Amino acid sequence: MKMRTTLAFSLAFCVTLVYSADRTWDGGGTAANWSLAANWDGDATVPSVNDALFFAGTYRLSNTNDLAEGLAFSGLSFSSGAGAFSLWGNAITLGGNVVNNDGDTQTLNLPIALDATRTFNAVSGNIAVSNTVSGAGGLTKEGAFTLYLTASNTYDGVTTLNTGTVVIADANALGST
Predict the structure, then answer these.
(1) Residue 13: per-residue pLDDT
(2) Which of 92, 131, 91 is nearest to 108 (CA)?
C-alpha cells in the first residue's frame, strides 16, 4: 500500500512540473522581432511559455515582442555588458522577476501582467516601466538603482520598497491598492 501511495504522489508531482528554458537575445536576426529564432542564442527556437528571457549584447536593442499576447515568462534579465534595451510589443505575463545587471537603463514599453508578487531588481542600473502593469500580484523593488513607473497601473498587490528609489509619474503608478 505504501508503494502505491508513493508512486501516485510521484506521478502527480511530475505532472505539475513546468519545463522552462533560458533564452538569450543576441539580436542576430534580420529584424528585431522576438518571433525570429535567429535573434536568440542557438538560432533554433523562439521563446515559449515559462521560458526565462535574458537580454545580452548590443544588437537590435529596440525590439518587439510579436509572440502571442499575454505569454507567460519566468523572468526578464539584462546581462552585464548589455546595451540599453527597449522592449516593445505584445503584453507579457511575468511569472518571475525583472533584474538589471547592466549599468544602462533598461526600458519596458510593453504591458506587463503580474501573476504574483514580483521583484524588480535594479542591481546595476535603472529600470523604466512605461506601459501598464496589471494583474493580481504586487511589486517589490530591490537594488540600489531607480525603478521608474510612468503609466497608470492597475495591479492589485502591495508595492514594497526594500532598497533604492521608485519614481512615479502618474497618480496611479503604484497600482490599485
Answers:
(1) 43
(2) 131
